[in-house]
User: Which sequence fits this backbone?
């Protein structure tokens, strides 16, 4: 194997977070990010040809190794005691609004949902799915909230442009006039990954 491609493999194996192509190129010594992207493609081809249980995928603006979903039953058995807890309906509604309306204040979220969102926001902040992005230039300068890279990783997105368009959501779940704009629950449009439905981000060993 080409030494540089082997280095890309080693870096992705060791990293616990997605590595952008630019960062890979810098670390390995490629002249451009395209060379790093090509290395990832060549590695994936090798893994496929060898029948490996893992691949490299682009997620949250970077590259990361993941285990193929057909091996999820065994991985689930190994990690049964640390399975991720699903988000509550309130947390999913709040996360949906933040994802589509960011940056957004808690007051705006509360007005749209019709209930207070303090507990849901606390949960999302603790799980690092949302973060404080600044303060609004309005009376009291309330905090603004937005999604994080962990949000992208959690839902298997490369960037926010991969979120379904609002018009597409209305086709699936119907219009929601009480929300401005209509926002469907992420539980409907982007089911939280489980080992049964999504590739498991892991380091192959």
Assistant:
């Amino acid at each position: 194997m080409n030494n540089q491609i082997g280095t890309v493999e080693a870096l992705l194996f060791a990293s616990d977070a997605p590595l952008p192509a630019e960062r890979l190129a810098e670390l390995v010594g490629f002249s451009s990010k395209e060379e790093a992207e090509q290395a990832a493609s060549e590695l994936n081809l090798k893994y496929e040809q060898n029948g490996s249980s893992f691949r490299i995928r682009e997620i949250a603006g970077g590259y990361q190794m993941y285990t193929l979903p057909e091996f999820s039953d065994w991985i689930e058995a190994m990690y049964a005691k640390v399975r991720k807890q699903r988000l509550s309906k309130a947390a999913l509604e709040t996360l949906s609004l933040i994802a589509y309306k960011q940056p957004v204040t808690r007051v705006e979220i509360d007005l749209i949902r019709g209930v207070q969102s303090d507990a849901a926001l606390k949960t999302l902040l603790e799980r690092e799915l949302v973060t404080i992005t600044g303060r609004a230039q309005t009376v009291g300068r309330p905090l603004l909230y937005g999604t994080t890279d962990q949000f992208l990783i959690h839902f298997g997105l490369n960037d926010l442009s991969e979120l379904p368009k609002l018009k597409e959501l209305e086709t699936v779940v119907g219009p929601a006039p009480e929300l401005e704009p209509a926002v469907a629950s992420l539980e409907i449009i982007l089911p939280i990954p489980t080992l049964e439905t999504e590739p498991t981000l892991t380091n192959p060993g």
